[in-house]
Amino acid sequence: MFHIRIFNHYVPFQYVVLTFVEYWLLVLSVYLAYTLRFPGESISVLDYRDPAAIKAALFAVVMLCCTLSLGVYEAKISEGFSGVAVRSLVAFFLLGCGSLTILYYLIPSLQLGRGLLSLSVIIALVLCLLVRSVFFLLVDSKQLRRKVVVWGNGEKAQQLMSTIIDTNRQNNLNVIGFVGEPEAAHPDIPKDLLMKSPESLVEFCQSTKVDEIVVALDERRRERGGNLPLGQLMDCKLSGVEVMHSLEFCEREIGRIELGSLDPSWMLFSDGFKYSGVRDVSKRIFDILISLILIAVAWPFMLLTAIAVFIDDGAPFLYKQTRVGLNGKLFDLYKFRSMRKDAEKNGAVWARQNDDRITRVGAFIRNTRLDELPQIYNVLKGDMSFVGPRPERPEFVKDLVSEVPFYDERHRVKPGLMGWAQLKYPYGASVSDAAQKLRYDLYYTKNHSLLLDILIVIQTVEVVLLGKGVR
């Protein structure tokens, strides 16, 4: 699947096209519903000043955001088209109609009548599911899959193959083979995919229509006669075949940086990990605006949560805990208390599955993420950002820095209330989990932007609604 890079974040080009098509289908749905409900009345489709055009545009934007927030497009990879259909139904009728109802209450002039809204949603759902079914058939066709050759057949090549399979990305790729000496190949790589280096790599790529060569050698040798044929790879690159390191390949395809292939020089010289004053200012404005909006919307829930915690287990209903922030600076993080008051009488420990220290109310507020709401204060204060790697306790960080390579690099950006790793990986409760999540934290640290922050905020809705990543 072909990707484009928008503000450092890789986005599949096909999904950009699908989003554009669906936007206009959603707009069209409102006009069709209007025509069916009020036959004989004329409306201007092209006049953007027409109130109907503004209402249709609002309808389309809200429905697209709800579609994205429930991971409708990602569901195709893991759940098939049935998952797409169910999530689309929930996104349109539950989230979409609910969000529009709130907006209509706040801005009555943009309101669609109940009958018109219901008809628009039904038409939109039918049209979008039809388009998505055709789209996914086209995307899944072998003709549109990117043909990939992996240069290497050792440990790193096998890890790359496992990553492709584990993340269900094989549906988007056609791996032709792994190049290297067959007798030195990793035993888990299928024998029918092992191949020796062709005499002319350019001719081989042209004859088999290879789109991409991914370099995944256990040890890159740049000297003449080594395992990396620099001249042939340069010829391929200049003939239109994309050549990239396995690190960049996983970064693009999966949105993470593989620790096993990572070296300090790549971090230093790769595109990313850059300072941007404009980005930092826009991010701070974004943090303040979202925090104020969230306070305005969530204060009744915060009040009820405080009362529930107090009734269930007494005072205090809030607790503060020292966490590691930007550049290793310590700060006090605030939460609604979800555990017993003596939960850490023997010192700091990782949270466990079905942790018996969690109170009855605590289990609910952890599942719904209500316990995190006091951290809005940390965001407004500037200790945290709305989006960023989740802050860890110094007791854990001390061990993680010594056991997990590059762990300290996640502290190059402010910690966040929500993060890229929380979308992509379950709740972490061990050193091993922390290492897995670090792959996503490093991707965010390298590529963070306002666009990626907005995307994470929208997609976090699914995490909250489905209770993902909670212990």
Automatic annotation (TrEMBL):
Residues passing through the membrane, by range: 12-34, 54-73, 85-107, 119-139, 288-311
Protein origin, superkingdom: Bacteria
Entry's family note: Belongs to the bacterial sugar transferase family.
Domain Bacterial sugar transferase stretches: 283-465
Cellular localisation: Membrane
Annotated Gene Ontology cellular component terms: membrane
InterPro entries on file: Bact_transf, EPS_sugar_tfrase, Sugar_tfrase_EpsB_2
Record keywords, A-Z: Membrane, Transferase, Transmembrane, Transmembrane helix
Topology versus the membrane: Multi-pass membrane protein
Classification via Pfam families: Bac_transf, CoA_binding_3
Keyword Transmembrane helix attributed: yes
GO MF terms held by the record: phosphotransferase activity, for other substituted phosphate groups
Protein name: UDP-phosphate galactose phosphotransferase
NCBIfam families, A to Z: EPS_sugtrans, EpsB_2
